[in-house]
Design a protein that fits this description.
- The chain is 33% helix and 28% strand.
- By secondary structure, it is an alpha+beta fold.
- The strands form five sheets. It has a seven-stranded mixed sheet. It has a six-stranded mixed sheet with strand order 8-2-1-12-21-20, covered by helices on one side. A three-stranded antiparallel sheet has the order 3-7-4.
Length: 389
């Protein structure tokens, strides 16, 4: 295998996984990020079984298991009637198949700590603005400096990538995320992602997270669906008015959101949908949200980035850069497209202003989801294994 000089733009999940893999393969790696000191943005996520397999290969799964919460069920109810409208089992409780609820900060720290044991050159405060390629290789540029040449640049800089040509459509709903202490007296199971809906226009949920770095207090993520257009002004009617509305819809939410005392404890997030037809250019690989974006409804975002990183690095083990980029795109094509389609189809049933889709969800889709083979298909869909990733 030819050792390459590789630059990675973005120190998120995909960038860190790529850096760990490539350094272990013997490549020289520089990793660029905007931060002055390493830190993640966001609250909770679920690492699905496909993502866990990648973390195991990276040598990080044991540490992740110690700091995360096993999730065996995803369950949602309709606020007005209390009927179940979403129920997906990973498998038997305490079995070998489960999701892992974890804080982004915890996952970041585990990957970053592992990276620190390797020979990677981290270049912080780097606001990459563009990339160019010539006979010597590919370069990346900030407003004041050019870095390179590199044999390969990996764009792992996320949804607002300055390098990716991706075109997306904005989704109607975003969300607010916050991190609170888990409440032991709550009736909510500690091994379940629990959600509540009013139609599809209101959605809220609680996700067990495990613990934060340097903190053994069990945590939970709370989230609240909010129209994209009103998200910047949230909460325009006041924090207490929002709490009253949320608790009026779902009383079990109360002990968790009562811990939210300031609006800045909730982080706004907007979502887009789109996929690159070709996730590479000359000496440039594009992975994660820079290559494909979707609603978080299926819980696949971080897992997709981990899979992209693994497949790309695997292709570089036995092929030159040009062939490896084409192989990476080919091997990820079907899996990415399938999950993009399912995300596009399912999301309006749970986040939209539709008056028609929620009854279809409640009285047609939900009963079907309890019987074979739909139940098995949904489990594999959530696990990330509906087709070979």
């Amino acid at each position: 295998m030819t050792p390459y000089n590789i630059g990675i733009v973005g120190c998120g999940v995909g960038g860190l996984a790529s850096a760990i893999n490539l350094t272990r393969q013997g490549h020289t790696v520089d990793i660029f990020d905007k931060f002055e000191t390493p830190s993640p943005i966001g609250s909770g996520l679920v690492i699905q079984p496909v993502g866990q397999a990648v973390l195991k290969d990276l040598g990080c799964l044991e540490a992740v298991l110690a700091k995360s919460a096993p999730i065996y069920t995803m369950h949602g109810t309709e606020s007005s009637s209390g009927i179940s409208v979403l129920h997906v089992d990973y498998g038997p409780e305490n079995g070998d198949v489960f999701g892992l609820g974890i804080h982004r900060g915890t996952l970041f720290q585990i990957l970053f700590d592992h990276l620190q044991t390797l020979r990677v050159n981290l270049i912080p405060s780097s606001h990459i603005t563009k990339s160019s390629v010539n006979a010597q290789g590919r370069h990346v540029e900030t407003q004041t400096q050019t870095h390179g040449p590199y044999d390969l640049i990996i764009d792992a800089s996320g949804a607002h990538s300055p390098l990716s040509p991706i075109k997306t459509r904005p989704l109607t709903f975003g969300a607010l995320w916050g991190t609170v202490d888990w409440v032991d007296s709550s009736p909510l199971p500690k091994n379940r992602l629990t959600q509540c809906y009013r139609g599809a226009s209101k959605m809220m949920g609680v996700l067990p997270l495990g613990t934060l770095p340097n903190d053994d207090t069990p945590k939970a993520a709370v989230f609240w669906s909010e129209p994209r257009e009103t998200l910047p002004a949230w909460p325009s009617s006041g924090l207490e008015a929002w709490k009253d509305e949320a608790i009026g819809l779902w009383s079990e939410f109360a002990p968790f959101i009562s811990q939210i005392t300031q609006a800045d404890q909730m982080t706004p997030a907007t979502y887009d949908h789109g996929t690159l037809r070709q996730p590479y250019q000359d000496r440039l690989a594009i992975i994660g949200d820079a290559a494909h974006q979707a609603s978080p409804q299926l819980g696949q975002g971080a897992n997709m980035a981990l899979l992209d990183a693994k497949v790309l690095c695997k292709a570089l083990e036995s092929h030159n850069i040009d062939k490896a980029l084409k192989l990476y795109a080919r091997r990820r094509f079907a899996h990415v497209r399938l999950y993009q389609i399912f995300s596009s189809v399912f999301t309006p049933f749970y986040q939209s202003n539709s008056a028609i889709l929620p009854p279809v969800r409640n009285y047609v889709f939900n009963p079907l989801s309890r019987i074979w083979p739909v139940r098995t298909m949904l489990t594999r869909l959530v696990c990330g294994t509906l087709i070979k990733p």
